[in-house]
């Protein structure tokens, strides 16, 4: 009996000794790994290209789409908007469905129509985590998102500078979706403020009327607002942070327009046609106001 209990005591000690050795070795291994591993990898890590699609172009046309993304960001909670006023121009987490795909389709159609690619910046992240069409202080709530948000704007800013240097003028089309009128596309330029270079250089007819981009789209069958008869932009769709930031810079020759597409223009079966019509109107616009020679017809 006594020998048996001695044996079991010996086994118990051996068992715990083995556990202690195992735990010590594991801890050692981890501390060595953390010395050799870059710091960023010890935190939840997210590649910038997972959050933002960007494409350097060869035309004075820049496409932006901040609200169509579907991707979740691991380890980040959804925004709560605590303390912010809600609504389409305030805190809102609903995505503009189909606009990520539409932006890619417009890029492809422009490349086909012009023979050269436009500049493109598209958010892949769902709006419930980040809203690139808002100033940084209300655009996200988790610090993990900051590099993704900064990347979106740094890229857009770089592209605007590049277009200015290469072409001395350019247009930024900020692509959105609205649920107010299915058959309509609304334009937002802060009633002309974010296209001040266009208006100063070519006059009001370049901004409003048959020779404006919306006039050219109307002639191609789109229902647009402002229309030929009403000149004022629709309240709520007058243009957000992106067009105000990049199209309203003093002495900048970048004109920025927010386009709010109704569902009929961005549902899966219609996107390619929408993109083709927009590319065709942009070709006429670019020939008149950007002095772009279009090689392909
Ligand atoms: Zn939007």
Overview of this protein structure:
The protein has 297 residues and is α/β, with parallel strands linked by helices. The chain folds into 2 domains: 2-37; 48-290, 3-Layer(aba) Sandwich (Aminopeptidase), CATH 3.40.630. Helix content is 42%, strand content 13%. It is built from 10 helices and 7 strands. It has a 7-stranded mixed beta sheet, with helices on both faces. It is elongated, with a radius of gyration of 27 Å. 41% of the residues are buried. Residues 28-42 have low confidence and may be disordered. Zinc ion binds at residues 67, 96, 176.
Which descriptors would you attach to this protein?
alpha/beta, Aminopeptidase, seven-stranded mixed sheet, 7 strands, 13% strand
């Amino acid at each position: 009996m006594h020998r048996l209990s001695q044996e079991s005591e010996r086994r118990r000690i051996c068992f715990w000794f083995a556990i202690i050795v195992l735990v010590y070795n594991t801890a050692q291994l981890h501390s060595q790994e953390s010395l050799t591993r870059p710091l960023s990898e010890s935190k939840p890590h997210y590649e910038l290209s997972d959050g933002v699609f960007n494409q350097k172009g060869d035309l004075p046309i820049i496409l932006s789409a901040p609200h169509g993304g579907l991707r979740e960001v691991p380890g980040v909670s959804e925004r709560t908007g605590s303390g912010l006023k809600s609504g389409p121009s305030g805190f809102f987490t609903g995505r503009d469905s189909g606009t990520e795909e539409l932006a890619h389709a417009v890029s492809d159609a422009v490349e086909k129509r012009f023979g050269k690619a436009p500049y493109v910046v598209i958010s892949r992240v769902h709006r419930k985590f980040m809203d690139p069409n808002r100033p940084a202080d209300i655009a996200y709530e988790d610090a993990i998102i900051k590099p993704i948000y900064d990347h979106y704007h740094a890229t857009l800013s770089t592209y605007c500078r590049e277009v200015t240097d290469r072409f001395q003028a350019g247009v930024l089309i900020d692509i959105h979706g609205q649920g107010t009128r299915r058959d309509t596309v609304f334009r937002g330029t802060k009633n002309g403020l974010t296209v001040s270079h266009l208006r100063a250089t070519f006059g009001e007819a370049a901004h409003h009327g048959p020779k404006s981009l919306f006039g050219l789209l109307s002639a191609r069958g789109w229902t647009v607002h402002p229309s030929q008869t009403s000149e004022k932009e629709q309240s709520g769709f007058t243009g957000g942070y992106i067009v105000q930031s990049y199209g309203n810079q003093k002495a900048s020759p970048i004109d920025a327009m927010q386009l709010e597409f109704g569902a009929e223009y961005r549902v899966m079966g219609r996107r390619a046609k929408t993109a083709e019509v927009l590319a065709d109107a942009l070709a006429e616009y670019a020939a008149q106001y950007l002095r772009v020679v279009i090689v392909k017809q």
